[in-house]
Every structure is written in C-alpha cells, then in structure tokens.
Write a structure and sequence with these properties.
The protein is α/β, with parallel strands linked by helices. It has a single domain, classed as Rossmann fold. The chain has seven helices and seven strands. It has a seven-stranded parallel β-sheet with strand order 3-2-1-4-5-6-7, sandwiched between helices. Helix 3 packs parallel to helix 4 and helix 4 runs parallel beside helix 5. It is globular. The model has no long low-confidence stretch (mean pLDDT 96). The structure holds nicotinamide-adenine-dinucleotide. The site of nicotinamide-adenine-dinucleotide has 26 residues, from helix 1 and strand 5. Nicotinamide-adenine-dinucleotide (NAD) binds next to helix 1 and strand 5.
Length: 264
Amino acid sequence: MPEGLLAGKRGVVFGVANEKSIAWGCAQECAAQGAQLAFNYLGESLEKRVRKLVDEFLPGSPVLNCNVQSDEEIASFFEAIKKEWGTIDFVIHSVAFADREDLKDQYITTPRANFTLALDISAYSLVALAREAAPLMPNGGSVVAMTYYGAEKVVPRYNVMGVAKAALEASARYLANDLGPKGIRVNCISAGPIRTLSASAIAGMRGMLTAAEKVAPMRRNVTQTDVGQTTVFLLSDYSSAITGEVVHVDSGYHVMGLFGFEAE
Ligand code: NAD
C-alpha cells in the first residue's frame, strides 16, 4: 500500500513541458506522497520529452496528447482517463501562453487576437478542464491552478498575462461555487517567479527574480518544490474546507507595501 498524504488518490497533471516545469515539481511531490498520476503533453514536439521524463521517474503513468484550446481533445483526454481509472481525485492546471511580443513593452499595444489567445489558453482552459473532470469526481476532489501576483498588481511587462491570471483567479472562485456542492474544491497557487520555459518569454523576468530576493520577507526566490509541496496540501484532505482561495507561495513578497527603502 502506498503511504503519504495522497495515498490512494489519482490525479491528472496539465502542463509538463520539461524537468523545470512547475507541473513537474508538483508531480514529483504528489508521487512522493503516494498519488498516481496521468499527464498531458502539447503536441508531437513535446511528446518525446514528456514521455521520457515520465517513463524514467514515474513509469506506467498514462501520458496523453491534449491541447487545452480544443474541446474535442479535452473530452478525449478525460474519456481515456475514465477508461483507465474510472474516477479521479484531482486536477493540476499548470498551463499558460501569451505571445512573447506582448510581454516586453506596454499592455496597451496588445492586439485583440493575442488577448483572446492568452485568455483562452491561460484562463478559459481551467473552466473547460473542470467541466470535463467533475463527472469523474463523484466522491469530491480538488483542482489547483497556477497563478502569479501580476493578477493583483501591475508588474511591468507581465501585461496580458496579468489580465489572464486575474481571469483565472476569478474563474477559480466561480468554479469553487459551482462545484462546492459536489465536494470539489478549486484553488489557485500564486507562485513567485521561477526560471522555466514559459518564464523565459517574459522580458522582465530577471527583475522579478531580483526583486523577490531583495524585498520578500524571506529574502529568497521560490522553487518548484515549494510550489509542489503546497500543491500536495491543497490536493490532500488536510485542506478539506479550503476553496476559492489564492495561496501565495512567494516567500511573502505580496505582503510588502514599500519596496527598496529601509524603515527609518
Ligand atoms: P512551462 O513552460 O514549463 O509550463 C507551461 C505549460 O503550458 C507547458 O507545459 C506548455 O506545454 C503548456 N501549454 C501551453 N499552451 C498549451 C495548450 N494550448 N495546451 C496545453 N498545454 C499548453 O512553464 P511554468 O513556468 O512551469 O508554467 C506553469 C504555470 O505556472 C503557468 O500557468 C504559469 O503562468 C504559472 N506560473 C509560472 C511562474 C514562473 O515564474 N515560472 C510564476 C507563477 C505562475
């Protein structure tokens, strides 16, 4: 019998691109706590890398194609999971995209099509995944999505992604209300900046990392493991009455009000 906070639970992980992905950090922590996992990958270009990673560290875990822009692919993904497992206990949503051209200057220049694309992949996808996952959670469950502080405050150059994250966080609250009566909880983790594939598209990334080290109460950046461990908590029965919440895993950065000045 597996042991740990997630022993006996099964869940799907969306968003592994490589070993630096936050989703991979979450997967490792969940597996260490006894969970069984299934993974998506985005198209053939990422399949080999994701499959290799999963086969090496979590052999036997299902790995299936799913572009979250496609309702058909989402439906087939959950159909395959239903066939394999019958039911699931959790979903990890660690997926986002914005055109890198829109993450380097001002928000005001964002073209309509790029706005729609960023919001579709980064926010609407949570709604679409929750809708397909809920019927597979007859005994309740937990959904966790990754967000960032740029949803709450202006982080220069985070731009359209900040607006998408605001929509993601609001969606999590509305989904929490829709799914609460079924015992399904929906929460977000607001992670501090971490160097990953997606993060490399953000022109202000270096500044974000430096600011956290200088300003955050803990004076350090966070890791995939920090985020993974909080994910385990939110997926486990230890968070049984927490839903619609945004939990900050950012060394406390978001509590600060005065940056760069020592109190006199
Ligand atoms: P990552 O590049 O490793 O992960 C992003 C994932 O999104 C990739 O696996 C990619 O394949 C997937 N994706 C993009 N478009 C998709 C689509 N149409 N269909 C299916 N999958 C798609 O980067 P990451 O930093 O691990 O990002 C994971 C999540 O964490 C994102 O939501 C990101 O916004 C959030 N986040 C990241 C940071 C950071 O600093 N890295 C901070 C806070 C929140």
